[in-house]
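Weekly sync, protein design subgroup
Attendees: M.S., D.O., the rotation student, P.L. (late)

Item 1: inverse folding check
M.S. brought a backbone from last month's batch and wanted to see whether the design step gives back something sensible before we order anything. D.O. pointed out we never logged the input encoding, so this time it goes straight into the notes. Structure tokens as presented (302 positions):
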């Protein structure tokens, strides 16, 4: 639920006219590493949970490290929420993952920073690039756990978290933060693929040719908040050029199809689009199937 104005006033100071980084496609706008690092410095690093809990301990959505019974090593997912913060829909994905014998780091990028929403712009230094650093630090954190298989750590992001995932899947950002190899796979649910255009600042793209690991996007064709067509138009030439990306667009499916708490609600977004939310349990079930099939294909190649 994040829109192109997301990088607001704090980003104007980053409006430095520099060429694309070495190895980047000339048509892809990128932020040089020094700007990436500065952008992520506006908020302190998160304190990530060390102690693993059973899924039954998750009685309400919160930051938590969760694991199945047993010693593992388990594959692990880092789950990253939408622009309005951690909610019951994302917590439900944690339960699905643990039921499939995955460890889960349920990340809350907002609460410890006093943020409730970034849907209309960054708050307290929380922007997309800070989110990418959070995600990559979480991957590093998971790889160090004795019950986690360090070669099977994936990110699953939703809307804003999915856009963060697009950055965290790219070699440019992995290298900029120096937090290790990143994720073995990334899945983005209903992300935006906008070219970010901060007022008075430097434009940059979320999607680029430097996708470092398999990337899955799941989208709805009735999503007017983060339209699927904007992603498909950018991903098609990348896939044709050999990028490890795949996607599926669900017919008659809105933004946040897994968000039962938003069912029937609507709004006018910052771009003037009418946005409707419809909970669609059949799509939830199919997206669960597609997500874990994608991950199992990835693990089979490790």
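Designed sequence read out in the meeting:
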């Amino acid at each position: 639920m994040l829109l192109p104005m997301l990088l607001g006033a704090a980003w104007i100071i980053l409006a430095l006219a520099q060429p694309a980084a070495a190895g980047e496609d000339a048509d892809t706008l990128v932020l040089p590493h020094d700007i990436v690092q500065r952008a992520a410095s506006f908020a302190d690093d998160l304190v990530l949970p060390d102690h693993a809990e059973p899924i039954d301990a998750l009685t309400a959505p919160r930051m938590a490290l969760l694991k199945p019974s047993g010693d593992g090593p388990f594959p692990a997912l880092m789950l990253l929420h939408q622009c309005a913060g951690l909610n019951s829909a994302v917590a439900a994905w944690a339960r699905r993952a643990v039921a499939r014998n995955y460890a889960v780091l349920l990340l809350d990028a907002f609460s410890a920073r006093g943020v409730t929403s970034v849907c209309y712009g960054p708050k307290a230094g929380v922007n997309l690039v800070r989110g990418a650093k959070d995600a990559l630090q979480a991957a590093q954190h998971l790889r160090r756990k004795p019950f986690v298989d360090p070669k099977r750590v994936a990110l699953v992001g939703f809307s804003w978290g999915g856009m963060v995932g697009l950055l965290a899947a790219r070699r440019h950002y992995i290298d900029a933060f120096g937090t290790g190899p990143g994720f073995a796979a990334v899945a983005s649910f209903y992300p935006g693929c906008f070219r970010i255009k901060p007022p008075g600042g430097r434009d940059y793209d979320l999607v680029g040719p430097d996708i470092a690991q398999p990337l899955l996007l799941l989208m709805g064709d009735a999503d007017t908040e983060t339209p699927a067509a904007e992603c498909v138009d950018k991903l098609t030439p990348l896939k044709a050029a050999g990028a490890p990306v795949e996607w599926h667009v669900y017919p008659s499916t809105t933004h946040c199809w897994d968000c039962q708490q938003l069912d029937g609600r609507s709004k006018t977004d910052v771009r003037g689009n009418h946005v409707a939310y419809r909970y669609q349990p059949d799509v939830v079930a199919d997206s669960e199937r597609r997500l874990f099939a994608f991950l199992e294909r990835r693990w089979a190649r490790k």
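Discussion: The chain is about 30% helix and 20% strand. The domain at 4-300 is CATH 3.40.50.1820 (Rossmann fold).
Action: P.L. to compare against the previous round before Friday.
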